[in-house]
Amino acid sequence: MDLAAELQAIYDSEINLEIGWLWDGGIGIRLGDHMSGFLAEETCGSVNEILPWLQEAIAHFYPDSTYAKGLAAELRERAKARLFAPVLTRSSVQCPDCGAPNAAPGMDELFIFYCARCGRSIETKQPQVQ
To answer: What are the sequence ranges of the domains in the chain?
Structure first.
């Protein structure tokens, strides 16, 4: 598979992701973005591991996307049952309508967020201090 062509197809499907690395620390991949939150993350040991993880993550979290619909049926089925590591952030909530996680990296409290999956604006309730 051509990584450049696949990344372009993901980009064309308007799916946000982040790839980065520090030498000898692995390659970090996160599905989502800083504005709407990240859905899942993984640390890979080689560039060859990036695309298989991204394909399953996209098929799992964005099954109706143009990109996911173009993937092999067996990959899409496998992705449905796959468990993904939650994104490590300080503040995280789930959309009450669709259950999608929303993370606020670097934030101690989250007051409102826009759900990346269903598009709803959600106001969060803060716990009462006793």
So the answer is: 3-81, 91-123
